[in-house]
Amino acid sequence: MAIHEKSLIETERLLEHDSLVVDGVDVSGQWNTMITPRTIVDYDDDFEAKIQSYVGGEYVHRCWQCGSCTNSCTMYAQNVQFNPRYWIYLTRLGLTDELIKDKDIIWQCVSCNKCTNICPKDVKPEGVMKALSHWLEEEGITEKSPSRIFDEEFTDQVYDYGRIEDSKVMKNFFKESGQPLVQGWLVEFTKRMIKRLPVAHLVRLGTNVVFTPKTKSWGKTGEVLKAYVREQKEAAHG
Amino acid sequence: MAKVAYYPGCALEGSGGPYDRSTRHLVKALGLEMENLRDYNCCGAMEVKNVHPMLQTYLSARNLAIASEQMGLDTVMAPCNGCYHNLKKAEFETATSQQVMDTVQDLARKADDPVYTGDVRTLHLLEWLMEELGPDGIKQRMTRSLNGIRIANYYGCMYTRPRQIFPEKDQGPGSESSYQPHFMDDLLAAAGAVNVEYPLKTACCGGAHTLSDSDTSTQLVLNLLQSAEDSGAEVIATECPTCHSGLEMHQVRAETEFGIRTGVKVLYFTQLLGLALGLSPRKLGIHENVSDSIGLLKEKGVI
Ligand code: SF4
Ligand code: SF4
């Protein structure tokens, strides 16, 4: 049979013959591809529960594999290897080795919520994507993704001031993720931005980078929130 | 007309400055009443929920509580999709889960913050304008026209998704639709624009990864720009500062990194409505947009 979801099979297990005769019948052409059998023994039976312990992953067990999430997914349209339905399937079966093969793209979910919007079983696949990428990072399987670095920089500013200043987040993010602040397109963008900008606005933008806007009544809110998150994470993962 | 609490959020006070200024001038010109949300905090944008979702819920509930407890107002109006989405989500989660409400109130007491009791609703600026004036109200107040300028209305992700947190949408005639939003179309048509058929109205601009996965964002923005041009649009109208900055940034990036030029202009819908009301481009911050639309607007006789 022609194999339609070849992307789900490891290349080393696909055997393609130029011409093939089986029991005296020539099955070349459409029928020339074989998959070597594999017996899976490396299940992690506790994996689903582990992903459920990450915020966002709570409802992964509800999935009935309809495929609506992948079908609507923004990232799947960019790259067919980005497949939330498949990753949810692997999560439920505890096939972590298979999941880890896609470790470098899972974090790319853009949180557009098309999946969560359409899922008939309220799995909240967007949350599962975040849970999976956090699991990969926290187990040390991948480095912290640029997206995680950005999230943490952003949240730290909120903890401290109650507010953020976007150009400061941007500057710190570039520093922490090891990217140069001076990139051709950003320079061009800034040039166009300031071309017709009144001087007063320029000064305001400049001072905001030095003095982060602050919520005056913030008081101990940041500390209370930090403590809450710490407790929650300890309760979930020790 | 009831007064609302205006929540600009960090973006409108930062890179979304032109949206903030055009909103304030527009609201004044329309004779509507709003008061700044006092000493507000960040809503958590798209980032904080990834550290912990309750954090985001709390941040938004804190803002809602400021409106009711400190200002005596029962409606918060947010022009930013991110703020709007997060406030709606907090509203929804506290209303549907006693456990979430308890946690929010408990955190507020510990932090000596105003305590949210579930008595505030959130409106996007688009919804507020529709509720107070509607297309007819806009038409009555117009002193100029958008002269048939062709517009692709871009709503983005967070104004419509996930639909579960917007119970008042999809309620039949007159209500906003989460699948085919039309409020911005309706208002701009009343101001004399021609809305093109735009299939990517609610597609994602990749805003969550503008800097952390720039190539993806540039590709997603290019889809939006090119599809707008294919639909015959001269302008993309935006109603979110993150979408707006993303479109502008990645339009420039596509040009400088990949040599792909697109001509469609990006303007906030408040800037367009403001022009139809006779406000000056300078007041509306049109000169502050990176996307330079002055030539087009002159050519069209809009300014
Ligand atoms: S849409 Fe929901 S139920 Fe369907 S495959 Fe995706 S997660 Fe599973
Ligand atoms: S939120 Fe992520 S997984 Fe869901 S549709 Fe968007 S990109 Fe795909």
Please characterize this protein's 3D structure.
The complex is a heterodimer of chains A (238) and B (303). Chain A is mainly alpha-helical and 238 residues long. Chain A folds into 3 domains: 6-35, no CATH class; 46-139, no CATH class; 151-214, no CATH class. Chain A contains 12 helices and 4 strands. Chain A has helices at residues 47-52, 68-72, 74-78, 84-93, 96-100, 114-118, 125-138, 146-161, 166-176, 184-195, 199-210, 221-237, and strands spanning 14-16, 21-22, 25-26, 33-35. In chain A, helix 4 packs across helix 7 and helix 8 packs across helix 12 (221-237). The N and C termini of chain A lie far apart (49 Å). The model of chain A has no long low-confidence stretch (mean pLDDT 87). Chain B has 303 residues and is α/β, with parallel strands linked by helices. Chain B folds into 2 domains: 4-123, Glutathione S-transferase Yfyf (Class Pi), Chain A, domain 2; 144-300, 3-Layer(aba) Sandwich (Rossmann fold), CATH 3.40.50.11810. Helices cover 47% and strands 10% of the residues of chain B. Chain B has 13 helices and 8 strands. Chain B has helices at 9-13, 17-29, 48-51, 53-71, 81-96, 98-110, 125-132, 134-141, 183-190, 214-230, 241-258, 269-276, 294-299; strands spanning 4-6, 34-36, 75-78, 121-124, 150-154, 194-195, 235-238, 265-268. A 4-stranded parallel beta sheet of chain B has the order 2-1-3-4. A 4-stranded parallel beta sheet of chain B has the order 6-5-7-8, sandwiched between helices. In chain B, strand 5 (150-154), helix 9 and strand 6 form a beta-alpha-beta unit. Chain B is globular and about 55 Å long. The two termini of chain B are 31 Å apart. At the A-B interface, helix 3, helix 6, helix 7, helix 8 and helix 9 of A face helix 1, helix 3, helix 4, helix 10 and helix 11 of B. One iron/sulfur cluster binds at residues 72-75, 84, 109-115, 125-126, 129 of chain A.
Query: What's the end-to-end separation of chain B, in Å?
Result: 31 Å
Order of helices and strands of chain A: EEEEHHHHHHHHHHHH
Low-pLDDT residue intervals, each spanning 5 or more residues of chain A:
none
Low-confidence stretches of chain B: none
**% residues in beta strands of chain B:** 5-15%
Structural class of chain B: alpha/beta
> What is the tally of helical segments of chain A?
12
The helix fraction of chain B, in percent, is 40-55%
Q: Give, in order, the helices and strands of chain B.
A: EHHEHHEHHEHHEHEHEHEHH
Number of domains of chain A: 3
